[in-house]
Amino acid sequence: MRRWVFLGVAIFAGLAVVYLVLLRSSSVAPRLVAPSPTSVIGSGEDAVGVSAIGVILAWQPAPEEGSLPRLPLSELPENGRLAGPMLQQARVLGGAPPALRPYVASSYYGESGVDVELTSGIELRFGDASRIDEKWQAAATVLADPSITALDYVDLHAPRHPSIYGEGHTLPPVS
User: What's the CA gap between 61 and 52, in Å, rounded?
Assistant: First the structure.
C-alpha cells in the first residue's frame, strides 16, 4: 500500500499555519470470514455444526462423524442460535485449545454447570463460560503434569486454583 504525504504552509492574517495531508492509493477491501464449527448437533448426515458463539451452521457441509464433540440436543433451535445452558456449552467447547480438541468427547450441563468429558473418561468441570481461556489453560496444565497419572475430574471453577479428584481414569497421551 503506497501513501503520499504532503506538508504545506499557509499564511492566514499574517500567521503561518502548517498542515499535513495524508492520501492513500488503495482502499480497504471487504473480506468474508466464515465461522468454523467447534461442536455438532445430531449425527451422520443429519449432523449440523455449531460455532463457538452458538450459531447453527446449517448452510455448511455436515462435519465429519466423530470429528467434533456432540451437544446433547435432539432438535435445532428455530432461530438458528443456541441459548442458555447449550450456549454455555458451545462457548466452552469453542474455547478448547487445538492440542486438546481431539480428546474432547462431549459436554453436558450438570449440577456444577458445564462439564466436558474427555475421550479417556476424565471430566472437566468448567461451571460457566467465563474466563474460558484461563480455564482451558488450567486444564491443559493439570493434564500435562507428569506427577498426575490418573484422575476422575478437574474442577476449573477457579482457574488459578484447579482442584483434582480421583484415580479412575488414565490421562490422554502427550502429543
Answer: 17
| Range list of β-strands (E), 26-138 | 39-41, 48-50, 56-57, 104-110, 113-118, 123-127
Cα 151 to Cα 121, 122, 142, 146: the distances in Å are 9, 7, 10, 12
Q: What pTM, to 2 d.p., does this model score?
A: 0.76
| List of E strands, the chain | 3-12, 15-24, 39-41, 48-50, 56-57, 104-110, 113-118, 123-127, 150-155, 163-170
Give the pLDDT confidence of 47-83 residue by residue, as tens digits. 899 999 999 998 888 788 878 888 988 889 999 999 9
Measure the CA–CA gap between 70 and 49, rounded to whole angstroms: 9
